[in-house]
Design a protein that fits this description.
The complex is a heterodimer of chains A (about 625) and B (about 375). Chain A is about 45% helix and about 20% strand. Chain A is an alpha+beta fold and about 625 residues long. Chain B is an alpha/beta fold and about 375 residues long. Chain B folds into two domains: about 35-150 and about 285-365, Rossmann fold, CATH 3.40.50.2300; about 150-285 and about 370-385, Rossmann fold (3-Layer(aba) Sandwich), CATH 3.40.50.2300. In chain B, the strands form three sheets. In chain B, strands 7-6-8-9-10-14-15 form a seven-stranded mixed beta sheet, sandwiched between helices. Chain B has a five-stranded parallel beta sheet with strand order 2-1-3-4-5, with helices on both faces. In chain B, strands 11-12-13 form a three-stranded antiparallel beta sheet. In chain B, a hairpin with a 4-residue loop joins β11 (about 350) and β12 (about 355). Classes of the chains: A alpha+beta (about 625), B alpha/beta (about 375). The interface between A and B is medium-sized, with 26 and 29 residues.
């Protein structure tokens, strides 16, 4: 029994005196003397003359009084947490079961710890100032229980001026919604967000500062908090972290400070550590060894927090829904977009080459060549620039990008028409056909591509993905088809292909504008008229796209259903194996592959044709492939 | 500028809505009604035929409460218990006493055949819904048969087995006391042999006590691949149980409405018919026409408690064909005009395809081959 103390005092409050019998009759051969805590606090020296270990079963505020006494008397402390003392249990990693807690409380291997004093009050778990949505929740709380109060606290969330001064004298002025001093942060959600280089005896105080700049930012923070269970390399963008042996927190107006859940003081708050000031019996998970070898230095990670001119806005407004992009990121992007919006020789050359390539690929019906043309096409860049111009009401940027796009369109139409005129044969290939029936699905592609285009453009790391976006949306091939239509003098051909191009152009512009808005490149859509106009055009072109989409859906359903169609024609059983409906110009062609055992006569085919036609409202042209089954 | 754009958008939206809405001409009720008789088994063993068909008729009337001239249709219902004598009695009452303009009959072939001469005698157009006897509209000018006839369905069944399932050896079991069963069995046998298939045996199950086990064991030994059973649900269920007992799993095909009746009359036995095929009028799993989609919706809203039956489909189509003829007559109660227009129905949109009534009173219409799969009725093919 050498692992257990031989003598101890059992300090209890009257509400927990039923434990006396079990503690005194412990199986660890420890002689325990029960003392009412109140009596002990009246004259501690009297009781601590022959005993150097106490076991406490009392509320947190009473336990703090015992810890405070430790500064004058040297003794170790064991704790038996009550049923409702979940925080205390978690803090020292003590077991829930009484017998297990007693076993730890009577051990000889007490853990040395620092004590944090904030405005002279002992801090056991944490001190919270201001609004700290979510991060002050216990880590073992269910996400739903944690998120609901966090969402509530979002209402009216503001960033207020804060000033932090560290032990080294460094002053950090920032704006934050709140901050939290964490004593033992292994068991809080905050511990998932900050580094784990703290120890119980490092003489340091960890301060976590929350400064979400937007609700989107905050939601992103929630996502990271709940989904990133492991240790993090970097702290999230909404969080600042200060680690110092002391910290002074000042605010413009006094804030209530909740220490271990009780509002007992106000800002300014002075927190200091009393190194190795107490020895407490803790659970296995919290026990440390060899911490002396770790060199602890002051850490300040506040780069994510508002600073400089942003502080002037602090306290004036609630945090917005969308974030603002940092000026540095915006400047780089804006310079790049201005370049994209200009007509440059490379743009003109690439437009001509990509259109020629696309036109030849279309005549060849070669997907590979057409994809090559898509990759070469430089049209995406000025369209994305136009989106930014519209968002920020930058007339110069808008106009130059519109001119660039217009010139690009003219070049493409001219080049494709010319190639069409030069070609002696003018077949309508499958690659061309594929671009003659734009539908709502194409609009969907354009919208997603616009979002992707704006996003990739705003992020240098993924800029290479823009090529993929260009392939997905395919701007030049429809233009080339439209040009071929012009060359053939077929305005319907031209119109259908140009509708597809317009769909792409409008869809990308609108969605890229809104994406830039979401990414925070403008607090509002400044050129509302321009965006409304684009939206209006989108609505107008959506009508034919909707009709076309419906036709496509109807055709697919019909083709699928036809695979179950059979015909009894003059006692001959005909099985429809496959049906395909193709619209060519104004005619609807029905290709049917039919399986049959008996030879078909001209009369059989006529009867079959009548039967099929009676199920179509409009006149159709039928082509039939008959396969005889043995 | 903003106001102008907003106005344009609102206008465009309104125009879009107008364009999308179906054009429906308002019909002014005339205050007059046309009497139409409905005869069917509303009680007795076959009441499912009458009750479910009537629901289809009522659905059609609910969807079109007035004819184009504003007249409404007054439905007079008579129960004949599926007994030909009662059918005749009901028919005479409807014609002589109630002065109906047309009669819809939802009874079986024997009942249908019993009134075809009367239809000519009284010169009353009769719409036969369920009777599939090939002679229903023979020797009469006033009877139209909305259902397919036995010849067509037996033909399809034989060719489906031969050309779709690629089976060569079948056995046919029939009830010689039922004309419906016999005619289907005979036509199937004839057609199957014509396609160079082998009908190993045609078995008449006439007595009430039948040793199915002995018959089926014999057929299994003869390597029969499919059993064609144009019989009542009870017989087919009994055969199915015997098949399970002897652990034999041949393909099985039944006559028209077998599976629908199994669902309606004996749902607990449906699991015994797993994998069985049958000809039917309708399938819920197949693509419907626009009318079919609308009718299914109205039917579900009108009848919350309903059987899994396909008979309402033919009731809806029969009433639809009749009202279509009425709409084409200047006077909707003009029996001769009605009869003429009924016989001149071309491409009327049914639930799953168009229906044309030929000059001989027979319908050119699609039928479906259904199958029970995982306890549900599933369509396999649709045949025009």
């Amino acid at each position: 029994m050498e692992n257990y103390v031989t003598t101890a005092l059992f300090l209890y409050v009257s509400e927990r005196e039923e434990l006396i019998g079990q503690v005194v009759n412990n199986p660890y051969e420890c002689r325990v003397r029960p003392v009412l805590l109140r009596e002990f606090l009246d004259s501690p020296g009297q009781y601590l003359q022959q005993v150097s270990h106490v076991v406490v079963a009392a509320p947190l505020e009473k336990l703090k009084l015992v810890i405070a006494l430790n500064r004058g008397y040297s003794f170790t402390i064991g704790i038996i947490p009550g049923q409702g003392q979940r925080n205390l249990r978690n803090c020292y990693e003590l077991p829930k079961k009484f017998d297990d807690a007693l076993e730890i409380a009577l051990r000889t291997d007490a853990q040395v710890m620092d004590v944090i004093l904030c405005n002279k009050h002992i801090l056991v778990f944490k001190a919270a100032i201001g609004r700290l949505p979510l991060i002050d929740s216990p880590s073992d709380i269910s996400p739903l229980l944690a998120v609901f109060p966090a969402l509530q606290s979002l209402l009216g969330l503001k960033l207020l001026p804060f000033q932090f001064r560290t032990a080294s004298g460094k002053v950090i002025k920032t704006a934050a919604s709140g901050c939290m001093i964490v004593q033992r942060h292994k068991r809080t959600l905050a511990s998932r967000l900050i580094s784990h280089d703290s120890s119980l005896t490092d003489g340091m105080i960890s301060t976590v500062i929350t400064a979400p700049t937007s609700l989107i930012d905050y939601f992103s923070f929630l996502y990271q908090t709940f989904l990133c269970r492991g240790q993090r390399k970097r702290i999230p963008t909404t969080i600042g972290y200060i680690k110092s042996s002391s910290v002074v927190i000042e605010t413009e107006e006094p804030f209530e400070v909740a220490i271990d859940g009780e509002n007992i003081t106000q800002t300014p708050l002075y927190c200091e550590t009393l190194p190795r000031a107490v020895r407490i019996n803790v659970g296995e998970g919290l026990r440390e060894s060899g911490t002396d070898s770790v060199k602890i230095i002051e850490r300040i990670e506040v780069n994510n927090l508002p600073a400089g001119r942003e502080l002037a806005k602090a306290g004036k407004k609630r945090i917005p829904f969308f974030s603002y992009a940092s000026e540095e990121r915006f400047r780089d992007l804006f310079l790049s977009l201005r370049d994209d919006a200009k007509i440059q020789p490379t743009y003109l050359i690439l437009m001509v080459l990509s259109t020629m390539l696309a036109a030849i690929g279309l005549y060849q019906s070669s997907s590979a060549v057409v994809i090559g043309a898509m990759l070469l096409a430089p049209l995406m860049a000025p369209i994305v620039a136009l989106a930014m111009g519209l968002l920020r009401h930058d007339t110069k940027l808008s106009q130059s990008s519109m001119v660039t796009i217009g010139v690009g369109i003219l070049i493409a139409l001219s080049a494709a028409s010319l190639i069409s005129l030069l070609f002696p044969h003018k077949p309508i290939t499958m690659e061309m056909q594929a671009r003659l029936h734009p539908s709502l699905l194409d609009l969907g592609v354009a919208i997603v591509a616009g979002i992707a285009g704006a996003y990739t453009k705003s992020n240098k790391k993924i800029l290479q993905s823009l090529a993929g976006v260009s392939i997905a949306v395919a701007l030049v091939p429809p233009l080339a088809v439209a040009g071929i239509g012009l060359g053939m003098g077929d305005l319907s051909f031209f119109g259908q292909a140009f509708l597809l191009f317009s769909t792409n152009l409008i869809g990308i512009t609108l969605s890229a504008t809104l994406t830039f808005r979401l990414l925070g490149y403008s607090p509002v859509v400044r050129n509302k008229k321009g965006v409304v106009l684009v939206g209006f055009i989108l609505m107008v072109i959506s009508v034919p796209l909707y009709l076309s989409y419906n036709e496509i859906v109807d055709t697919i359903v019909l083709e699928q259903n036809w695979e179950k169609e059979r015909f009894l024609v003059n006692d001959k059983y005909l099985i429809v194996e496959r049906a395909e409906i193709v619209r060519q110009r104004d005619e609807k062609l029905l290709f049917v592959r039919v399986l049959v055992r008996d030879p078909l006569t001209r009369n059989d085919l006529n009867v079959l044709k009548k039967k099929i036609q009676s199920n179509f409202a409009e006149r159709i042209v039928m082509r039939m492939q008959v396969i005889y089954i043995p | 500028m903003n106001k102008i754009i907003t106005s344009i958008l609102v206008l465009l939206f309104a125009v879009g809505l107008y364009g999308c809405s179906e054009e429906q001409e308002e019909i002014t009720p005339s205050g007059k009604s046309v009497k139409v008789g409905f005869i069917g088994p509303m009680s007795g063993a076959d009441k499912v035929l009458g009750e479910d068909s009537l629901r289809g008729v009522q659905t059609a009337l609910h969807m079109k409460p007035y004819l184009n001239n504003g007249d409404s249709v007054e439905l007079l219902i008579e129960d004949d218990k599926n007994i030909p004598q009662l059918t005749v009695k009901a028919f005479v009452k409807l014609v002589e006493k109630d002065k109906v303009a047309a009669v819809i009959v939802a009874s079986s072939s024997a009942s249908g055949l019993s009134i075809n001469a009367l239809a000519d005698q009284y010169q009353i157009p009769v719409v036969i819904l369920l009777a599939s006897h090939p002679d229903i509209s023979k020797n009469t000018k006033f009877v139209v048969q909305v259902c397919f006839d036995n010849n067509f369905q037996a033909n399809v069944a034989a060719l489906f087995v031969r050309d779709e399932l690629f089976l060569e050896r079948v056995a046919v079991l029939k009830n010689p006391n039922s004309y419906h069963s016999s005619s289907l069995a005979d036509e199937f046998t004839r057609r199957f042999r014509n396609t160079e298939g082998q009908v190993i045996e045609v078995i008449e199950l006439s007595s009430k006590i039948i040793d199915y086990g002995e018959i089926l064991s014999r057929l299994r030994e003869e390597d029969v691949q499919l059993l064609y059973l144009p019989m009542a649900v009870g017989n087919v269920v009994a055969i199915s149980k015997e098949l399970s007992k002897i652990k034999w799993k041949p393909r099985v095909m039944g006559g028209d409405g077998l599976l629908a009746r199994a669902f309606a009359e004996s749902p607990k036995d449906v699991r015994l018919l797993e994998g069985f095929y049958a000809i039917d009028l309708y399938s819920n799993t197949m693509e419907k026409t626009p009318s079919g989609i609308a009718a299914a919706k109205v039917f579900r809203s009108l009848f919350k408690k309903r059987r899994k039956s396909t008979f309402p489909a033919i009731g809806f189509e029969g009433m639809g064909v009749l009202m279509n003829a009425m709409d084409r007559c200047y006077k909707s109660s003009d029996k001769h005009c009605l009869n003429r227009k009924l016989h001149n129905t071309v491409d009327f949109e049914g639930l799953m395809g168009n229906i044309t009534i030929l000059a001989n009173g027979k319908a050119s219409r699609p039928l479906v081959v259904n199958r029970i799969r995982r306890g549900q009725l599933e369509s396999v093919v649709k045949v025009y």
